[in-house]
Amino acid sequence: MAVGAAQQNWAHVDLATVPSIVVPPPGPRSRELHARCTKYFKGLSGQVKLFPVAFESGHGCVLTDVDGNRYIDFSSGIYVTTLGHCHPKIVEAVQKAAARLMNCHDFTTGIKTRLMEKLAEVLPGDLNGFQLYDSGTTAVEAGMRVCRAATGRHELVSCYYDFHGKTYGAVSLAEIRSIAYGAVRAPGMHMVPRPNTYRPHWTKPDGTIDTDAYIRFYEEYLERATVNQVAAFVLEPIQGWGGSIMPPDDFFPKLRALCDRRGILLMADEVLTSMGRTGRFLCMEHWNTLPDVVSIGKGFGNGFPVTAVAVREPYKESFEAISASSSYGGNPMACAAALASIEVIQEENLLERAVHLEEVAMRRMRRMKDEHPIIGDVRGKGCLFGIELVKDRATKEPFDKAGAMVYQKAFARGLAWIPAGHILRMSPPIVMEDEVLLRGLDIIDEAVGETERELGYAR
Q1: Contact between 260 and 289 (Cβ < 8 Å)
Q2: Would residue 3 count as lying in a domain?
Q3: In whole angstroms, what is the distance from residue 240 CA to residue 271 CA?
């Protein structure tokens, strides 16, 4: 079936009935349920605080709230349900596993063995050593320990605006903004700027981003700011929390070469970007760059909590040195969900589908940028997109107020999606039909236009 066609009848959306707003959201049942729940449940995400709707069910690319409103899903449960909600093959696989065996710690099972073989088949190069976990943060922490065990060094270098999780080690790879994490970064953690094509630190005389300047800075930083005990660079291929920040195409090959020159490992945190989200099993494949260690998650089990660390052949025995096993990692239900998810991607040609949807979306978003003065930049890779809102295109001053308004207005029109301050993030399921994707972008277009009129930016 051509990539431009609907891939699966099970995920078909009738645009005559979706989106459907029967009660202005958040509706009365949502508000009542949310009030009851949050009497006890605390620490909500920004997107829930901005739009506290209560969901009841999901099917394919559609979410339904408790008031009967139906939304096009542009979030995938924050990059998780890459293959749509309740994919029948994955549902069946988890049900069968749950009825047979739920947990046996890290003993071998048939389903785990098949998953290991499948991972070795689909991942690039010699990434053939694995361990399984139940959260992205746990996988990142394990990956950090592998890097240290493999090199005998303890320092790690990450980048501004990266996000790697919420435990102390993972948080220390990112920006610490709360005294709850200790107010200081863990020892041996370093942060450097990374290339952002829209907001570069260094440019060439022609105004384009100067990737070589970043690499030169890294060389100097390693010499002057570390104690020469750097185990690895740890980076997101595309920054998610930072706002769908795409690197220039020459960055990761040059960083790989730097790491090789200095005997430093390259760890890719692909919790967000792996398993088809960007049109490859690993996002790093877009730049023909093989990392030494990879954390995999979110879409790996299409909603079931399963993550992994993958390492290259020379380093896989390092798992033995880090007490790698976990209570829930690799349980039969998790393995069944992950294996079924990979098989769905292969059987339904969904890597190609994600690339096709990128082309469809980027054409539409570029037109939106041309038509709206507060849109400073649009970007995407596979089904991972970002729209950056600015007060002025010349100064590129972030427009957080507009970001919140556009998010709420689009949600009220029937689009469930992700805010990030002045950057609007989108991660629709890669099974989405073209027409549904375009309808979601139309809703954003309408919300941006209304926001501009209210804030005095309309042309």
Answers
A1: no
A2: no
A3: 10
Helices (H), 123-199: 136-151, 168-171
Q: Identify the pLDDT of residue 3.
A: 46
Nearest Cα neighbor of 266 from 139, 124, 143 is 143
| Side chain identity, residue 58 | G
Q: Which of 295, 330, 365 is the last residue of a domain?
A: 330
Mean per-residue pLDDT pooled into runs of 10, the chain (459 residues): 54 97 97 97 92 97 98 96 98 98 95 98 98 97 98 97 92 80 83 96 95 98 97 97 94 98 98 98 98 98 97 96 93 98 98 98 98 98 98 97 97 93 96 98 98 90
Q: Cα separation of 402 and 398, whole Å? A: 9
Angle at 352 between CA 292 and CA 267, to 5 degrees: 15
CB 286 within 8 A of CB 280: yes
How many folded domains does the chain comprise? 2
- Which tokens belong to 295? 């954390």
Tokens representing 196? Answer: 């952002």
CA–CA dist 225, 161 (Å, integer):
20
Residues spanned by the domain of 390: 9-84+351-455
Same domain? For 58 and 108 the reply is no
Distance CA 459, CA 451 (A): 12
Asked whether the CA dihedral 441, 443, 449, 455 is positive or negative, the reply is negative
Q: Which amino acid is at 349?
A: N
Residue 423 token pair: 């950057």
CB count within 10 Å of CB 41 equals 9
Q: For residue 430, tell me if it sits in a domain.
A: yes
Query: Is residue 1 exposed (0-12), middle (13-18) or buried (19+ Cβ within 10 Å)?
Result: exposed
The kind and range of the H/E element at 216 are helix 211-224
How many whole angstroms separate alpha carbon 5 and alpha carbon 43? Answer: 41
Q: Which of 330, 361, 394 lies at the terminal end of a domain, its last residue?
A: 330
